[in-house]
What does this fold into?
Amino acid sequence: MAYVNLELTPERRKELIDKIATEIVKRGLETPAIMLLETFKPLSFIGAEMAIFYLFPYIKAITTNPIVDEITAIFHDRSAVEELIKRIEELVEIEKEKERAAKEAKKRAKQMASASTDKKKRFWIFGS
It folds into this structure.
């Protein structure tokens, strides 16, 4: 059986969690991802062990990319799964805040434009 290194440095762990969360939010899959992770969280250790035992021989035959080991290490630890869920929620809040700010800026620009055209309006409806 292939040896899997399940040790990650805290910096690498944070980097991977951030990268995974960013991809999930960028693709708009935050709700299904959070639901799946919340469902999978109690069984994450067992799932990671099964992946090591059943999937790794096939995956290692196809690729030797170390990211496979690192992702397995993340799902091997329940606290990392919880961190991933929290990071996804943080990124969603950041995106919502950006959307609110953009809406507010658009609204202000529209109000400014309508304020400048209000001065030009006359009471007579058939022309100036």
